[in-house]
Amino acid sequence: MKLFTLFVLITILWGCAQCSSNNPHPLDPPTRSEFKLIQTIVRRAYPSHSFTFQYVGLDEPDKTTILSWLSLTPQARIKNLPPRQFLVIARYQKQSLEIIVDLAAKSIIGTKVYEGHGYPMLTLDEQYLASELLLSYGAFKESVRKRGLNVSEVVCSTFSVGWFGEVKTPRSLKIKCYYTNGTANLYARPLEGISAVVDLDEMRIVDYTDRFIVAVPKAEGTEYRASKLKPPFGPKLNGIGVPQHAGPGFNVDGHTVSWANWAFHVGFDIRAGPIISLASVYDLEKQKYRQVLYRGFISELFVPYQDPTEDWYYQTYFDSGEYGFGQSASSLQPFTDCPANAVFLDAYYASADGSPVKIHNAFCIFERHSVDIMWRHTEIAIPNEVITEVRSDVSLVVRFVSTVGNYDYVIDWEFKPSGSIKLGVGLTGILEVKAGKYTNTDQIKEDIYGTLLADNTIGIYHDHFLTYYLDLDIDGEDNSFVKTNLETVRVKDHTTPRKSYWAVVSETAKTEADARIKFGVKPADLLVVNPNRKTKPGNKIGYRLIPNSVVHPLLVNDDYPQVRAAFTNYNVWVTPYNKSEKWAAGSCVDRSRGDDTLGVWSLRDREIENKDIVLWYTLGFHHVPSQEDFPVMPTLSGGFELRPTNFFENNPVLKVKSPKPVHWPNCTSQS
Amino acid sequence: MKLFTLFVLITILWGCAQCSSNNPHPLDPPTRSEFKLIQTIVRRAYPSHSFTFQYVGLDEPDKTTILSWLSLTPQARIKNLPPRQFLVIARYQKQSLEIIVDLAAKSIIGTKVYEGHGYPMLTLDEQYLASELLLSYGAFKESVRKRGLNVSEVVCSTFSVGWFGEVKTPRSLKIKCYYTNGTANLYARPLEGISAVVDLDEMRIVDYTDRFIVAVPKAEGTEYRASKLKPPFGPKLNGIGVPQHAGPGFNVDGHTVSWANWAFHVGFDIRAGPIISLASVYDLEKQKYRQVLYRGFISELFVPYQDPTEDWYYQTYFDSGEYGFGQSASSLQPFTDCPANAVFLDAYYASADGSPVKIHNAFCIFERHSVDIMWRHTEIAIPNEVITEVRSDVSLVVRFVSTVGNYDYVIDWEFKPSGSIKLGVGLTGILEVKAGKYTNTDQIKEDIYGTLLADNTIGIYHDHFLTYYLDLDIDGEDNSFVKTNLETVRVKDHTTPRKSYWAVVSETAKTEADARIKFGVKPADLLVVNPNRKTKPGNKIGYRLIPNSVVHPLLVNDDYPQVRAAFTNYNVWVTPYNKSEKWAAGSCVDRSRGDDTLGVWSLRDREIENKDIVLWYTLGFHHVPSQEDFPVMPTLSGGFELRPTNFFENNPVLKVKSPKPVHWPNCTSQS
Q1: Is residue A484 included in any domain, yes or no?
Q2: Annotated active-site positions of A, please?
């Protein structure tokens, strides 16, 4: 602990803005030059053009290695950076290879053929190639002609096919096409009735059918580009400036961020997207930084659509494991995605041929002046005196946006001076719609599995489940998971005029089975505590999970998509830390069969008391589309809070002073 | 509808900042001069000094009167303001009187003796008088002396006593006292073991016992005033300016606020606090304002503590009906409670003698630049083109803070350009604690009904339930309540490779019994719709309730406090509009017996389909205190959203332009 503290303090004092090369951290994602070196090393062994890089990421050092590195002096740390090793998952000769590359040794130090079910993440390149195939496919061109459309205005997109009990599961994608004439909103104009399957290893169409024709919904009313929309515009919103005479209040040093009482590392992975590591909070009373979160990221996103018909049943996406939540990052726009006081970070990933690709402005980091109240009290009970003490809240946000095809996910990690971490999710972007013959609900006599949004346009029902991996290390690695159940006590002995009250019955989970929680069944506070450390009054030091919605999957447990997404069956799971258990849906998710999920690992029912444990939390949304979601949807928000609970001896922001108002008296404004 | 639209448009065009007298509205709360006139009229009839004004508020005109007034021209409206009538609830000769005063007639037009159970709201004056009684009471002075304390540093406070099955329920309050030596945080230093009861009508102590002595917890560590705290301070937060070269983007005209696409009226009531009326949203496509909410306010707050012992069992407060959520308003502090760009409104209420009391800065109204994203999409599927369209969110907030003794409630009504209304609740302030002999949890062998927060200091478990009255009038008065249940369909006929999907089964509530909802049992979208109006595709026009927590009472249904708070037994109730059904806990709540609650009215099981209906929504918090909540608690937030759902034909913010960044190039800054 102490050495960890030392590390963070030194890191903070060690200022050097955004120059990761001068201040490397063992959890840093691969740099541009590292990607090149990995490419060179691997290409040397596999010169064939048919060899593709499906995933390249940090093979993160063991936790013990990281912790002992952190215990070194800064000088020693530079010299003793743990070996930079990377995991390359590749497709080669119809096999999935797991290759470990060591950069110091400049060589491959391990190669394994993946023998399990499922395939690695899809590359953007192969998806692009697959989506282009149809455009020069004779039967498709005929289908387009038959519909009276122009093939030059057709755009196709690729869709993972899932697994529905098939014995053989070739690596393939389905293709759906859209019409772009008159709009940039291609998702609004699907060519319904056509299905096509591409074999990815052979990169050719293996199945094509054109079963029926439905008119493509009209372009009118689908546009969302301001430059193409016609007046009237509105409602009018006016802007504010965000002047900070002293500049931003946070420091970004390589990938390490420090602000107010927080310090943490921001990583990036092509599959996970943002990874927050080593988050620790400064305790003013103890005068040291204290560990909270060793590593946290979104392990999987499961998005099942609810239309069981031919062209839709398979749409049960795993946005991380199949598409890469990091690979799908959108470059953030200054002043709209992020405020004027934001700082941006780029990210890199490897394309199919192994070359580094830069994502400009993949992250932004900013202080949020949300105009919330941190704490307050007005006291009028004391004679001749009115006391009013108010502290306004400021927080630090790390924002990332991933656009997986039609949907945009806004992911916020928000750090609060009170010690809370708020995890925010915003859903926006464009609905997947189905073309139909209907223009009015009056005409509908069957189940259309969605909402009629406009003429011939059905927004299909679906869910979003986000599963967070949260390796909380509360004041050290050995932690326990405690349910503090709130239970009604009925008074029977007439010792009080009350007939009832509620009591807190704490229960420490011994094994994984004790820690599977479905919200809404029983009121409980859920805590990760350090049973080896107590506060002065003797309370267990901990952090509490505060959900803000209760959503459970509605598919039956034995349905194929749900078997693959069994990790969503509970809102909360706790597992003992295991370096290999990172991906809730398993390592190879495309066409997976659900035999390598969190749901399966947890069946071992391992001991989790006073161990290094990982909390898995799933939040969800059932989405019944409404007309307001068309042609682009206003953000729907969700999230949860990790809140210190008897972690501090008392209110950690008691001695915060509200920021002074900033006045700009002599300004020539300009909007 | 059209006439309503006209009204709002005219109101907006009718600018006159904060001059309610020039632009009176029939829903305006009583003005200072109206209070004086009411006082004069009533005092003329009841000159006795023993006559007290317990409540004075607007006796709001009938809905039909309001709606027909709104249909007049502006000129005609000034001349035809409905009669200004007010309800005075008074105590006189040990009776509760309900007096209707008409200001035009300058007379009392109706008087009724309240014959039911319970008493009217407590006045601040009588609470103050009651709390002072003990300080000159011999036995109490002896009790203080016995504890080695100084009576000049004791402050007492009053607590409603509830009802626990007693046949006789005199109007009385319990008194608890605190020690202020060395701290302003009196709640942290209770004098445990002493109980006193004051008869309010006789204003004298009728019961006094000193049963045991527990040392008063120490003052150290309880202070929260910045001026009294010792360094180190921190963490340091830096401020921002909020320059708006064009000033705030909203207009306050009397009590009517207009901003972006919203217009509404902000009222105030000594019992309810803030009341939002006639909220309507401008539909860019239809080019008119459309009705959303006729009237919304917090009808009751129920705060039961969970310690059944002698001095605590009765602590089951009704913060509106007993204490007055409006009466408890705190004056808002510029720059901390509200941002630099806020506009403030004062409020008035009548004190016990009928004279107006001003609450300075009772409301603030401000544009919130929360740095959220209103909607966005990045499109990479179109060849040779990357589209990124992002709109940043801005909303308008009406904020009000009520400090009921120790607790501070931050109440936000937030209006979003997307048509959503977000209702926010922040809990902060000071915990009620009990003095105990313990300094460490190791010593505790019994149930202490709370958390040991510091030496001898127990934070007692409790709940907060807030019940909102929401008279939604979606595009007109006649509305229905629709549950769109999400139901799993198991596929049995092998028509699809899927084994299941979920379907939406809509159910329109016929009577009140159909509309009692306990969250967490069944997934459903809950809507208030206008069954008489449909969108172009034929969907019912509506607004959806999106909760963000699931909390239910844990007291047994037949426990006395829960009988009085039966309105919290469901998260949602729907009743037909009835002018007299405003207060979920009944009209006279102090010592009430639960025979006049929403729970009882709803037993009539009236028809609610295609009627003018009211939605009642209860959100709650179970509060297991933690050390972080001491000596003052960081805000714990909750809330819910009312979101348009097939109310608009499409995304109502599609044509919003993000505010332009405001630059301040030539500034001399000053912090």
Answers
A1: no
A2: 319, 407
Q: Which residue of A has its CA nearest to B389?
A: A225
Residues 6+ apart with CB under 8 A from A173: A122, A127, A130, A158, A159, A160, A161, A197, A198, A200
Burial of B75 (0-12, 13-18, 19+ CB in 10 A): exposed
- Average pLDDT of chain A to the nearest whole number: 93
Contact A488 B383 (CB under 8 A): no
Confidence at A585, pLDDT banded by 50, 70, 90? very high
Q: Do A550 and B555 touch (CB under 8 A)?
A: no
Q: What is the count of structural domains for chain B?
A: 2
Q: Do B657 and A397 touch (CB under 8 A)?
A: no
Sheet holding B450-454, edge to edge: B433-435, B457-460, B450-454
Chain-chain contact of A371 with B339 (C-beta, under 8 angstroms): yes
Minimal Cβ distance to A375: which of B455, B632, B655: B632
Which residues of chain B fall short of a pLDDT of 50?
Answer: 1-21, 668-671
B82 in a structural domain: yes
Strand-strand pairing, A611-623 and A572-576:
antiparallel
- Here the tokens at position A601 are 């690992």
Q: Residue B374 is nearest to which of A451, A627, A634, comparing CB atoms? A: A634
Angle of helix A2-13 versus helix A63-70 axis, rounded to 10: 60
Amino acid identity for residue B177 in this structure: C
Residue B34 to residue A50: CA distance in whole angstroms = 86
Which residues from A are below 8 Å from B562, CB to CB?
A: 500
Model confidence at A22, pLDDT cuts 50, 70, 90, reads: low
pLDDT at A667: 52
* Domain containing residue A635: CATH number: 2.70.98.20
**Pair B275, B289: CB distance under 8 Å:** no
User: Do A155 and A52 belong to one domain?
Assistant: no
Q: How far apart are alpha carbons B540 and B480 in whole angstroms?
A: 10
pLDDT, tens digit, 9 for 90 and up, residues B234-263: 899 988 777 776 678 999 999 999 999 999
| Inter-chain contacts counted by CB atoms under 8 A, chains A and B | 594
Q: How far apart are the C-alpha atoms of A404 and A327, rounded to whole Å?
A: 9
Q: What is the CATH number of the domain that holds B144?
A: 3.10.450.40
As a whole number of angstroms, the distance between CA B250 and CA B367 comes to 8
- Are the Cβ atoms of A554 and B488 closer than 8 angstroms? yes
Q: Are residues B140 and B204 both part of a single domain?
A: yes
Domain boundary among the residues A67, A97, A113 is at A113
Nearest C-alpha of chain A: how many angstroms from B182?
13
Closest alpha carbon to B574 in B541, B611, B539 = B611
- State how far residue B566 is from chain A, nearest Cα, in angstroms: 15
Top residue of B626, B630, B655 to mutate, by most chain A CBs within 10 Å, is B626
What is the chain B residue with the closest CA to A375? B634
Domain residue limits at B45: 20-113
Q: Are A268 and A375 contained in the same domain?
A: yes
- Conformational region of residue B261, where left means phi above 0, alpha means psi within -120 to 50, and beta covers everything else: alpha
pLDDT tens, A370-417?
889 999 999 999 988 999 999 999 999 999 999 999 999 999 999 999
